[in-house]
Queue: 2 jobs
Job 1
Amino acid sequence: MGFKGSKVQFGDLYASGFLSGGSNPIGDGVRVQDVKQSFGQGNISFTDNGLDMAISGDGFFILNNNGETRYSRAGQFGIDKDGFITNNQNMKVQGYTADGDGNLSGIRGDLQIETDNLAPRRTTNLRSDLNLDSRESVLEARVNRLGEVSVEDLIANGGDEFVIVYADGRPSQQVQIPAQVDDGAGGTRDISAREIAGILNDLTGVSASATSSFQFEGDGGGVSTLDTALANPDFSFTIAIDGQNVPVAANGVSSKQELVDAINSSSSSSLSAQLVDAVDVNGDPILDGGGNPVQDVRIIDNRGSDLTVSYGNGGTLTDYDKVGDLNVSTDRSIQDIVTTDPDDPAVTSLSCSGLRYW
């Protein structure tokens, strides 16, 4: 980024008069004939703005000025309120657009950065090139990834009991996870994935995380039911986290994008929403009559709390409950996890049998 210099080109002023006899004598001064901008390569330096860019060699940035294409080598860019990358004259920077997997489409468009809360997505693949010393002994197993544990199964079985057996000789530890916990009003309720993760994270050698993910197709009556409700001017929507209602300004909402914006504007810091492509029970994309993907709304609670989504028209709302997902791993200090649950003598929800160490 930076300033591009210009070069002024001068020309002589010629005197021509009634008695000049057709000659054009010089000597009356000079005037500016043209100003030519220099596009030569300048110095490239670093700035504190991560969006500042510079072109090394030939080329220009392509800018969209309300439908008019402009070209510039100035690389001082920022982000506007809608997430578009712009220069200091609010012209949008253009480039080749990409899909959700990062594949370039070859179609030029305005570059936009998503500024909303993004749903967490775990890493599924890691590639690394390493040089190992062949003189060293084989590395020890370090992490046992137990994967996703079914909270619904755990609750249905009345909880879980197991013993953690340590490989370093320390005493085994017996653990009990209840299916029900105090609801704070003199009664009980089902334990949430967030609360189970809290119990497990207090155990030596165990690490757990919980996330709740709700989509209307599969969890909330289907996308078509949501579309029908949104088309009604009396659309109503509420959401509760662990039984506590979270205010969502849904008045006047008539589209999925407006619903996403209303959820993301709620007071809950753990709650977020985004538009995603709808899929059926087999994981295949749902298409409309024109063959285009149908959009669904995904709601995420990044703490793994129980969600209750209610929507409908007027005062007639249908409730849809969704429990969180629990992911558990253990380090190399744990040798085994053995069930002691008399109601589930064959296996515990956290069994290590047949699972691979990483």
Job 2
Amino acid sequence: MTTSPSPIRLAKGVTLHQRDLAIALLIAVTNAWACGPTDSVAPISGETTQYSEGEPSAGGLGGTSGGVTGNLSVGGTGNLSVGGTGNLSVGGSGTVAVGGTGNLPTGGSGGSGGSGGSGGSGGTISVPRVCDMTGTWAFHSVAHPLPDSNLSSAIQYSSSWVYYEFTQSGDSFEVTKSMNCGAESGIPERLKSAMVTFSDATLDAILAETMNSQIGRTGTFADDGAGGCEFSLEKWYSVTSLPASLASDAQADPGFVLPLDMSGHVSDALDWDNDGTPGIAYITEGLVSGIRHAIELSWNSFRSHDEYDHVPGQNSSDFDVRMDMDIAEYVTSATKEALKAGAIMQPNSDNSARFKRLPASSVGSTDAGTCANIAGDMPHNYDSL
């Protein structure tokens, strides 16, 4: 026969079975250890346990009809009810009932997963342009002017050099910086030719003046669909030893035509090179030697052209194009009568220009140094670029 454990007698005849108390204490101690070594848990013998008469209850298994409600706290505040409803908390809030109805909390439900972040906006795929003028370029043109006199019947091939910086967006590009680096003309090997150059003082004056700035000049450079690039650079007017307004007025007038006679602008002549004589100074050597001063209004434009085989290749850093141009010149003074003749353009000639991407090594510490490097890399070679 099984002998029931002896009950513990409490006040007013209420009985607490040792079995029930042992279960409660076992749960309490187990939970206390689960709190970890950093939690402070006082020995059971050091706890103050209070029991008071609770409200009557139905009494669960092993409980009594007159339940006893008390407090037992191990490492926290809580209630233990034997034979009734109560709470047991170890290091936190919880409810346990022995011999009655109670609640033992379990872990809470996992939180809802966060909603996925919004997808990033679609990126732009950058496709390198096969026709791109962005960057720094050296420019060399060869024109075929004729002297407007019987001084020479030979074509005076004329070179000019420019430093350019471009930016391109889509198929359109724009000049963001330009420098006029001078000019040279003639064919010294031929008897009926004269070499025309600038003095250092004149070159310095040309570099310093800003009246012929090409900033804002626009063009297009686009894939032609046949393995090449279609190039164009808009018509642009410039002046030599004349007020900039003459060029800007001509630029603003789509119907403007160069005058056949520039003598009416002698009063407008400027002394760019500060040598005391209006007009720019050209030093002539060869068939006739001397110095001539002149004023000039001119224009040029550039385009790719199948007829002259001026079609830039794709991804090209060195190419040539067709140059359309015209000049109106007037000689303000000359040391010899033979040098007073102005220049005219030879009709239907293959005036052309070369654009070559300028490496960093060719950019000098001064503008004059950069221009000297450009002219040295693409020298005047008569009819060749």
